[in-house]
Automatic annotation (TrEMBL):
Biological process annotations from GO: L-tryptophan biosynthetic process
Single GO term (MF): phosphoribosylanthranilate isomerase activity
Name of the protein: indole-3-glycerol-phosphate synthase
Pathway as given in its UniProt record: Amino-acid biosynthesis; L-tryptophan biosynthesis; L-tryptophan from chorismate: step 4/5
Stored InterPro entries: Aldolase_TIM, Indole-3-glycerol_P_synth, Indole-3-glycerol_P_synth_dom, Indole-3-GlycerolPSynthase_CS, RibuloseP-bd_barrel
Keyword entries, A-Z: Amino-acid biosynthesis, Aromatic amino acid biosynthesis, Decarboxylase, Lyase, Tryptophan biosynthesis
Source domain of life: Bacteria
Reaction equation(s) it catalyzes: 1-(2-carboxyphenylamino)-1-deoxy-D-ribulose 5-phosphate + H(+) = (1S,2R)-1-C-(indol-3-yl)glycerol 3-phosphate + CO2 + H2O
The species this protein was found in: Neolewinella agarilytica
Indole-3-glycerol phosphate synthase domain location: 4-252
Length: 271
């Protein structure tokens, strides 16, 4: 059984318990459920700082503890100051160590679009995301059928949430729904956790031109951003690289600065 199978099996039980404790009608009564949403897609397109989606996460199955005691307010405020286009916030407690209040604190702290990053197995979670104040949700093609992706993406769109769908290979690209707003290529091999941006570069031409393309996981070298941008990627989701530093916000700012320096060198050489 893969880690993704284990997570999804656990998630189904977890969501069933939450549905019993908090009926859908109660979610719909929350103030955040009715607030206006911010567009992650637009924020990435208009970004002057390379469309960085900076992630807040405490741990992961591939890295174990990353920054378990991190302050979500301090980290994400730093990301916003650094020039991030959006914030990705893990809400899974069992495998990623999220605290139940993390996304609430993030939403109160930043004015950027926020992605609820979790493992979607039930449409109830879309309503949860809306009640949390999220602006976008993540769908993982590796764990969903094409029909599920289309159904979840369609319902999310009706709720005013944007959809980031994550793919790892050509087969998963074939599952994409027209209701997906952003397609993200994950550079991490889910079987052995190895990472390579070659995965994004290989899949770039297969991705639907109507969808904004982003690259995720294993991005630690500013030079990689330059290569990926030349292949048509507009955004880049980076988490562990920032979160393992003492000051993730400053790490984000330094990374953006280094990307700009490399691009300026290239522009100067061409001129």
């Amino acid at each position: 059984m893969t880690i993704l199978n284990r997570i999804n099996d656990y998630k189904k039980l977890e969501v069933a318990r939450r549905k019993e404790n908090t009926p859908l009608s109660k979610l719909k009564d929350t103030a955040l459920y009715h607030q206006d949403r911010r567009s992650l897609r637009q924020s990435i397109r208009e970004s002057e700082h390379f469309g960085i989606i900076a992630e807040f996460k405490r741990k992961s199955p591939s890295q174990d503890n990353i920054n378990v005691a991190a302050d979500p307010a301090a980290v994400t405020a730093g990301y916003q100051t650094a020039g991030a286009a959006g914030i990705s916030c893990l809400t899974d407690t069992q495998f990623f160590g999220a605290q139940p209040t993390d996304i609430d604190i993030v939403r109160q702290t930043v004015s950027l679009p926020v992605i609820r990053k979790d493992f979607m197995v039930d449409s109830y979670q879309l309503h949860e995301a809306k009640a949390m104040g999220a602006d976008a949700i993540l769908l993982i093609a590796a764990s969903l059928s094409a029909g599920q992706i289309d159904d979840f993406a369609s319902e999310a769109s009706a709720l005013g949430l944007e959809v980031l769908c994550e793919v790892h290979n050509e087969e998963e690209v074939g599952k994409l729904s027209p209701n997906v707003d952003i397609v993200g290529v994950n550079n991490r091999n889910l079987k052995d956790f190895s990472v390579s941006i070659a995965n994004s570069l290989q899949l770039a031409e297969m991705l639907p031109p109507s969808m904004l393309k982003i690259s995720e996981s294993g991005i630690e070298d500013p030079q990689s951003i330059v290569k990926l941008r030349s292949a048509g990627f507009k955004g880049f989701l980076i988490g562990t690289y920032f979160m393992r530093e003492p000051d993730p916000g400053q790490a984000c700012a330094d990374f953006i600065r280094r990307v700009r320096e490399i691009e300026d060198l290239y522009d100067g050489a061409i001129a």
